[in-house]
Amino acid sequence: MGSGLLLAGAFPFDAFAGPNKTRKLTVLHTNDVHSHLEPFGSDSGKYAGEGGVAQRAALIQAIRAQEEHVLLLDAGDIFQGTPYFNLYKGEPDIKAMSAMGYDASTMGNHDFDAGVEGFAKQLPHARFPIIIANYDFTRTALEGKTIPYTVIRKGDIKIGIFGLGIQLKGLVPDDAYGNTQYLEPLRIAQNMADKLRQKEQCDLVICLSHLGYRYDSRKVSDQVLAKETTGIDLIIGGHTHTFLERPTILKNKNGQEVIINQVGWAGLRLGRIDFLFDHKKNASFADAHSVVIGKQTIG
């Protein structure tokens, strides 16, 4: 997909006409769910009745019934935020994601709240990979239990997915992350994008990022990541709990579009981004919206 994304508004949809030429990919995503397994209570103000894993599962199931090719991804901070985590240390969270058929997740800083050992203890419940490229877990309980990237096929489309985590020192207690080594994310991101493009020959490259949407400082964020690299098509973000009703689209170092999206926190929203691929597997960003879980309309 070397020419970069084609924005739907600037690309004639009738160019996709013809038998077997159009492929559609629907990317669904969450971030910073923070152990919110149940909907918000009636006394929760504007969020009353929203969220909940049962409601999310029903929505995902309905979309899968409508669309042939669906990816379901998470950008980290699965853990911490309700008594469910205090009592069960993440087991119901991981089991729920497995039951919903998540394809992949990255790690957030709160996923270390029970320590590296605590996160590793929950991985037998995961029927999806934990993808993180810039944490080196050598000599920790997570050594060999995460992967830097994965390649998923949907029909004849190859999607490369890699993960990036935030700097842990100063954000997470030292004893919680132990010997985990943090690797500079921009360098790692470029290495991952190059590998997925050149070696794996992916048609779409997605970064699951827990770096945060944007900062006033020079700290690396999703916006910095988009501008300072090449080869990434979509950044699914987390950490800053940013509610984006529509994705942000920025230009990378080669002037090609990069889509950034994030859907707040607590499982209140499900992000949806639709791509179309032409007969040469060039991707077009067709549509995107954030669906309120618990009050949604399907479609």
Sequence of strands across the biggest β-sheet: 1-14-13-2-3-4
Task: Give the CATH topology.
Answer: Purple Acid Phosphatase, chain A, domain 2
**What Rg is obtained from the alpha carbons, in whole angstroms?**
18 Å
Q: What overall geometry do the principal axes of the alpha carbons give?
A: globular
Structural class: alpha/beta
Spans of 5+ residues with little confidence (pLDDT < 50)? 6-18
Provide the CATH superfamily. Answer: Metallo-dependent phosphatases
Distance between the termini: 28 Å
Strand content: 15-25%
Query: What is the C-level CATH assignment?
Result: Alpha Beta
Main attributes of the structure:
299 residues; alpha/beta; Purple Acid Phosphatase, chain A, domain 2; 7 helices; globular
Question: What would you note in describing this structure?
Answer:
- The protein has 299 residues and is an alpha/beta fold.
- It has one domain (23-292): Purple Acid Phosphatase, chain A, domain 2 (4-Layer Sandwich), CATH 3.60.21.
- The protein has helices at 53-66, 83-88, 91-100, 115-122, 174-177, 185-199, 222-227, and strands at residues 6-7, 23-30, 70-74, 104-105, 135-136, 149-154, 157-164, 181-182, 204-209, 234-236, 248-251, 257-261, 269-277, 283-292.
- Strands 1-14-13-2-3-4 form a six-stranded mixed beta sheet, with helices on one face. It has a six-stranded mixed beta sheet with strand order 6-7-9-10-12-11.
